[in-house]
Amino acid sequence: MLRCVVQTPRLWFFHLQSTIHGMRVADRCRSLAEWAATVCVGNNVFIGSNVKLMKGITIGDGAVVANGTLVVSDVPANTVVGGVPAKVIRAVE
Q1: Domain limits of the chain?
Q2: Mean pLDDT over each residue of the chain, to the nearest integer
Q3: Dist CA 23 CA 29 (whole Å)
């Protein structure tokens, strides 16, 4: 069973390589499945406030994402990440 609690007033999901601009509105809705990517969040993860998550990333079990972090790649399990872009700060024991 997947358990994750996100206690943050601001959590942003971004897709910078959008191909829907300039398309008719009806075509945009049809193409969402083509460019959307899943963001996977593991168990016992803490995500701080004002965090930005890019498309297609995975946050491993027990990870901590610091406030204001821009996550552009996968976050390993049991680590603390922070910064712009996110860097591993230390391992969680």
Answers
A1: 11-91
A2: 76
A3: 10
Q: In what order do the strands lie in the sheet with 79-82?
A: 46-47, 64-65, 79-82, 87-91
Residue 4 pLDDT greater than 50, yes or no: no
Q: Which CATH architecture has domain 11-91?
A: 3 Solenoid (2.160)
Burial class from Cβ neighbours inside 10 Å (0-12, 13-18, 19+) for residue 64 reads buried
Q: How crowded is the C-beta side of 21, counted as CA atoms within 13 Å?
A: 4
Which of the 8 DSSP states describes residue 73? S
Query: Can you give the pTM of this predicted structure?
Result: 0.69
**Residues assigned a catalytic role:** 21
Give Cα separations from 40 to 28, 61, 75, 76 (angstroms).
24, 10, 10, 12
Q: Which of 41, 38, 40, 88 is nearest to 62 (CA)?
A: 41
